Amino acid sequence: MRTAALILGIIGGVLGIIAGIAAMMIGGIGVAFEAEDAGMIGSLGFLAILLGIAGVVGGALATRKPKAAAIIELIAGLFGFIAVSMFWIPSGLCLIVGALLAFLGRKPSPAEVAAP
Questions:
Q1: What is the rounded distance in angstroms from the CA atom of residue 23 to the CA atom of residue 52?
Q2: Who's near 55: CB < 8 A, 6+ residues apart?
Q3: Which of 42, 49, 41 is nearest to 17 (CA)?
Q4: In degrees rounded to 5, what are phi and psi of residue 59?
Q5: Nearest to 94 by CA among 71, 73, 65
Q6: Long-range own/partner contacts, residues 106-110 (CB < 8 A, 24 or more apart)
Q7: pLDDT at 15
Q8: pLDDT tens string 60-80
Q9: Would you say residue 113 has pLDDT above 80?
């Protein structure tokens, strides 16, 4: 399951970067036509790019540190919906499922095994 979390995290992060670039392009076009709040769309696109990079980092950590990877992928997946909403659907789904697989695929610590 860790390998699937790694693949989904990387795919979701790359798709998130593409979604951020698309949002920045639309924001730039809106600024060129003097649309209202178009500059905010561009800055949220930049945030989506940062979240996409975080998703790739979370995916890369899935094999060595699955708990940290799950947290990073989940945060990136959820906050991406806030940043660019509809553009984030494919990447958000990949990141959230990747986070779930990373968390469920981790080996339990000795303290968790010993607990009744």
A1: 13
A2: 9, 10, 12, 13, 16, 72, 73, 76, 77, 80, 91, 95, 98
A3: 49
A4: -65, -40
A5: 73
A6: 106/2, 106/66, 106/67, 106/70
A7: 96
A8: 999 999 999 999 999 999 999
A9: no
